[in-house]
Specification:
The complex is a heterodimer of chains A (440) and B (306). With 440 residues, chain A is α/β, with parallel strands linked by helices. Chain A folds into 2 domains: 248 residues, P-loop containing nucleotide triphosphate hydrolases (Rossmann fold); 181 residues, Coagulation Factor XIII, Chain A, domain 1. In chain A, β18 and β19 form a beta hairpin. Chain A starts with a strand and ends in a 14-residue tail after the last strand. Chain B has one domain. In chain B, α10 packs antiparallel against α13. The chains are: A alpha/beta (440), B mainly alpha (306). At the A-B interface, α2, β4, α3 and α6 of A face α1, α2, β1, α4 and α7 of B. β4 of chain A pairs antiparallel with β1 of chain B, so a sheet runs across the interface.
């Protein structure tokens, strides 16, 4: 089969040092020009230490109708690859041949203008994404219906709730009809129900024989949507093949990368081999909803002489540990001398705010309940994302959707009392009916 | 929760999605691919083609960008489009008082307010167009880093939106000419080519500045001063004839000289200074060519450094 995209030895080099903020001023350039001759004496060639290869010799082909997931850690080169394919930025070397019309969706709602109405923004955004005016006019009703914003279509979008805005923006994008669709991690926005609707739409697109390249951290979405996956690591292709197989390897390495040195006790008699996070259905997952149970499973190996120890598993956000299951406090112990075993801890009804990322940390104390078990006091062993919108957990403040990702991470029920018997009980997120966000 | 449950059902994605790989071959028998690639993405060589054809392909986007600028500009203003007329009018009043009355500058025998009006119209357009397009790329960073389209569109749209204002603002001239009893003669046809030249000049400078601004934010700060200086080096508040002859030729290399003097001649039936117009046309063409090529050269870095 003849490929629709042919990528050959693609490389992209960036200069490092906060590229976004560090735009040059004339003064820097003048100063640089004065210094340049002296620098040249010390070091020859331009590609010194200040550059980084975001992509290095990447080659692959995609045939029409394929849905390819691109996975990898942050900084692996996924977004750079999509940016080159979308012609936003140029490669440093190599080339890509494209045999079809490309539309790229690197962000939802690019070019939306707050002062313009929903109707006007549909046309503007459509044009920016590469649709013809007649095409937008033809699909207009369908777009509005998909976004469920009929009533507000002539209201300036600055008065929209953020949820409505995302729906409208995605509706436009979902109606693109290119031969090739490039999608970056755009599905991380909006409520769960709408995310499902979007994924459903994308799957329709794929069924119509269009080619889709899909970048995501959400491995379960990739699994459901894609037949093939490309795993990028440090700018190179690590593995390219059937989706299930690539994902398995990827997840495996993510686990191995925990660093076995770090997870070996100071006495070398206890090692944590694997850490998994499991959802309510017992399947491995990294995405959870507020109120869901999170199970952290550890495989460990220990020496016959292992005297037992105290372990703790903590959930932290970027700044601090939020809560933990701590054997030092509850008095439980890792059983002594069993050579290997599996241990799991379930955190019930996660009181965690959505749209934030949380880190799973492990630490412990030796059998004397004093000496640290590991070299480091706590070691990050996993990351989870709590997903969903504020509407999903019944927090209906006007700006809640905008604020939630920066708000405090732990949610507990509380009650406002405004006097004169006016009481508002806020524990709605305790009653969240859980959606199975995994089955798209 | 009910609504969410409902829409879940609506989606109705087949739970038994077809197995990977194997079936993919089956589904795209209908796709026929072109012989030659539609796009080849590779690092650009040093000498770049202008590729003006892609501008044509994306003409609808240009239309929408202009439409957005025009639409948004006067939102939440009480006076709305009236500002387009008010701005030059206020400047004419100030200039007439300051330079006409107080300083007593000559005006080639035309009433000073009328004399100033012709140049102020051209000048307000140039300065607002250059300022707006000069900041346009930086202001559209979110577009540049997320979508591909010819980058030339952005400064061009800003110029076009300003040009629409210019055309509306010409209306100011009508009551003023009636009031001063000046009847245009055949020369008035020259207004059209001169306006085109003026727009091209604004485009050239605006596009060049916008590209420089991406790399050197200093442009954003310097631009207001530069246009101010440029104004005093152009015969906006004074006629060319007030200068000593040896300076006239020098100042004619400022393309605005030929344009402004040309405007006055065309509107008020004065003799044309063809030399000034010729020099200015040549300079505008050279500037435009330089700006286009230098824009295309700098363009490929935009997404990385904006």
């Amino acid at each position: 089969m003849k490929p629709i995209i042919k990528v050959e030895n693609l490389s992209k080099q960036y200069r490092i040092g906060a590229p976004k903020e560090a735009y040059t001023t004339l003064r820097d350039t003048i100063a640089g020009a004065v210094r340049a001759p002296f620098n040249a004496l010390g070091r020859n060639g331009r590609s010194g230490k200040n550059t980084i290869w975001a992509l290095r010799d990447v080659s692959f082909e995609v045939v029409p109708g394929e849905v390819v997931g691109i996975i990898g850690r942050n900084g692996a080169g996924k977004s750079t690859l999509l940016k080159i394919l979308s012609q936003i930025t140029e490669p440093t070397t190599g080339q890509v041949e494209v045999y079809g019309r490309i539309a790229s969706l690197l962000e939802v709602g690019t070019g939306f203008h707050p002062e313009l109405s929903g109707r006007e923004n549909i046309f503007l955004n459509g044009a920016i994404l590469g649709m013809k005016r007649a095409e937008i006019a033809r699909k207009f009703d369908e777009i509005v219906a998909f976004a469920e914003t009929e009533k507000f279509i002539d209201t300036p979008v600055k008065r929209y709730s953020s949820g409505m805005l995302v729906r409208l923006a995605f509706a436009v994008a979902a109606h693109l009809e290119p031969e090739i669709l490039l999608v970056d991690e755009v599905l991380a926005v909006g409520d769960i129900a709408f995310q499902k609707k979007c994924l459903g739409k994308m799957d329709d697109v794929a069924k119509k024989g269009r080619t889709v390249l899909f970048v995501s951290h959400n491995t379960s979405a990739v699994q459901k949507l894609c037949q093939r996956a490309i795993w990028l690591g440090s700018g190179r292709i690590r593995r390219d093949g059937a989706c299930g197989e690539v994902l398995e390897n990827y997840l495996h390495e993510m686990r191995d990368n925990l660093g076995s040195d770090k997870l070996m006790s100071r006495d070398r008699d206890f090692t944590i081999a694997n850490v998994r996070t499991l959802g309510q259905d017992g399947e491995e997952d990294q995405a959870f909803m507020t109120g869901e149970n999170l199970r952290v499973e550890l495989d460990y190996e220990c020496a016959k002489t292992f005297p037992g120890a105290y372990l703790y598993v903590a959930i932290a956000n970027r700044e601090t540990v939020l809560f933990a299951a701590n054997m030092c406090l509850d008095g439980c112990r890792i059983p002594a001398g069993e050579e290997s075993g599996k241990l799991s801890v379930t955190f019930k009804e996660l009181p965690l705010a959505p749209q934030q990322r949380y880190y799973i940390k492990v630490g412990g104390r030796a059998s004397d309940n004093r000496t640290p078990l590991f070299e480091d006091s706590d070691i990050e062993v996993g990351v989870i994302q709590v997903v969903g919108s504020t509407a999903d957990i019944h927090l209906n403040g006007e700006a809640s959707e905008l604020l939630i990702s920066d708000s405090s991470s732990v949610l507990v029920p509380y009650e406002w009392d405004f006097g004169k018997g006016r009481v508002r009980n806020i524990e709605s997120f305790k009653n969240v009916k859980l959606l199975d966000h995994r089955s798209f | 929760m009910d609504t969410i449950q409902e829409s879940l059902v609506e989606v109705g994605v087949d739970p038994h999605l077809p197995a990977p790989v194997g079936e993919s071959a089956a589904r795209h028998h209908a796709v026929t691919l072109p012989e030659k690639p539609l796009v080849i993405i590779k690092p650009r060589q040093s000498l770049v083609a202008l590729d003006l054809r892609s501008l044509w392909t994306y003409r609808e986007l240009l239309y929408f960008l202009i439409w957005r600028d025009v639409k948004v500009r006067y939102k939440q203003t009480a006076l709305g489009v009236t500002w387009v007329l008010l701005q030059p009018l206020i400047m004419v009043v100030i200039f007439s008082t300051l330079f006409g009355r107080v300083a007593g500058l000559p005006s080639d025998g035309i009433p000073y307010p009328l004399f100033a009006c012709a140049s102020v119209l051209a000048w307000t357009f140039l300065s607002s167009a250059v300022t707006k397009s000069g900041n346009s790329l930086v202001g559209s960073a979110h577009l540049i880093t997320k979508v591909y389209f010819p980058r030339l569109m952005i400064p061009a749209a800003a110029i076009c939106a300003a040009a629409i204002d210019l055309i509306i603002a010409f209306a100011v001239l009508v009551p003023m000419m009636i009031y001063y009893g000046v009847v245009p003669r055949w020369q008035v046809v020259m207004v059209l080519p001169l306006t085109v030249e003026l727009i091209l000049l604004a485009w050239a400078v605006g596009m060049w500045m916008s590209a420089l601004n991406v790399k050197y934010r200093d442009v954003g700060f310097a631009l207001p001063f530069l246009t101010q200086i440029w104004m005093f080096l152009s015969p906006v508040v004074y006629p060319l004839s007030v200068l000593p002859p040896r300076f006239r030729l020098v100042i004619m290399f400022n393309p605005m000289t030929g344009i402004i003097e040309g405007f006055r001649a065309a509107l008020f039936g004065l003799p044309f200074n063809w030399l000034a117009i010729l020099i200015s046309t040549v300079v505008v063409m050279l500037l435009l060519t330089y700006a286009l090529f230098s824009f295309r050269r700098m363009e490929r870095e935009f997404a990385d450094i904006v």
